[in-house]
Amino acid sequence: MRIRKSTTTIAAALALTLGATLFGASSAQAASPVNPGRGSNGQLLQPRTQFTMAPDGSSGATQGGEGIPNIDSVKKTIATYYGDPGTGIASKTSSPYISEMTRIVAQQSRSLTSIYRTAINQHKKPAIVFDADDTTLMTYDMEVADMHFTFDPAEQDVWVQDQRFPATPAIVSLVAQAKAMGFTIFGLTGRNDDQKAATLGNLRKVGYGDAFTADRFYTKWTGKGASQQPSYVTCAAASCTTVEYKALTRKHIESLGYDITLNVGDQWSDLQGGYADRILKLPNPTYYLPSADLPGVSEPRLAPRTHFIMKADGSSGATQSGEGIPNIDSVKKTIATYYGDPGTGIASKTSSPYISEMKSIVSKEAYRVAGECYVASKRHQNPAIVIDADDTTLWTYDMEVADMHFTFDPAEQDVWVQDERFPATPSMTTLAAVAQKAGCTLIGLTGRNDDQKAATLGNLAKVGYTGFTPANYYTKWTGVGASQKPSYVTCATAKCTTIEYKSQTRAHVESAAGGHYDIVANYGDQFSDLIGGHAGRAVKLPNPTYYLP
């Protein structure tokens, strides 16, 4: 007992000395038993399923990395919802989205007769206003298959002028029913005047017939030639907001003698601002177009959800409504806030909620791992820590966002790897140094391949890591030439999973053939880095920018 107390005390002093400069004074934390199937704080090694997210991205300052919906899981959830098999093309016959739209429209259809009669009885001219994109025309295939959720106005104009958009499910029948009953149909869209003729052509092409006419279809001015801001739209600033444009255009329609009995849109900004007796919000998690309320007007109920249930595998797209899926634009803004990205795709390297969270995690880990490494070393147990590469030791945010816009490109990733462009993940050089000083060997274990090993080691040394060597750094085989699957990795199918590769490599590291190390802790930013045991503790680092199951 006297020996254990002595070594623990020495380890605590060592951790305090090594960590004081970065973290300030703290007290060493005694190690406690951890289930290999759980993280260092006892949580199950699986992603969160409940999230709180404000639509403006501000939750990135408060929720922590694990509390932000992972963007890859959001993409899979959206794909499930639209019946997209992974091609970026939505099903046009059967999907949760089609089913929800059918239910919404059926419910609205049942009320049209009473709405119409009420207006007529009040001697009014009943009208319905419809937005275009994702209200009458569906943009999913453009947004996903073509743009990969990164909007390109020039490419959008190609789609508009080519009249490529299918009808939004069930809305053709709603428009036809309303027109047959005697409602006057208006269109009101953020598309511009140069796109008006093509939009009307697209609407006719997909079944709306002559329900929308040029004189009752409002598009936004370009500011060029005859396309100027109309006198009935007055704005608080030089650039009108969506709500100012749409609400004041509805006011203008009503000034012509119409009663807008129903206003239909997929964005809350289509519906804010009044000048409609009723609103119908259609689901759309594929983009978010926010706009401030009219000056002096408050409409808190016309706002997106803030609480979500989402499974990591995308299956929630089959059970949650469109409003119950985290909107991908809001997710992007939340991630940007978390990383201190001002909108350039470049993370702050000095101050951000991510840097603060990493500093907090590492400050606690430094004291713990120092004690574990020191004690195990004094007992001649050959201690080691295993550390993943991307977003565990090396930080990929700028590549993932500024370069790839959240759409992974392996060829471009290889350019970044070979150029050794990645900065160190915040605070992790300190954790590695503490573990080494306390007697642990650093073992690298990454999904990067053998052709990237030399460059990865070079990048690690370049940003301040010491102790990684070719012998203790494991990269994945390519299947070409000498780079073949090692005998200690056996897989259930021809293609090994990440968990099979990493857990069996850790088992090898702990075997006599692999050095007979005692892995006291395993660090990774993906749960697949950690699942499978063969480590005293598993420590999950935050990363909402991609998900590798």
Automatic annotation (TrEMBL):
It comes from the Bacteria. Residues 1-30 form the signal peptide. Residues 50-69 are annotated as: Disordered. InterPro entries: Acid_phosphat_B-like, HAD-like_sf, HAD_sf. Keywords: Signal. This is Acid phosphatase of HAD superfamily subfamily IIIB. The lineage of its organism: Bacteria, Bacillati, Actinomycetota, Actinomycetes, Micrococcales.
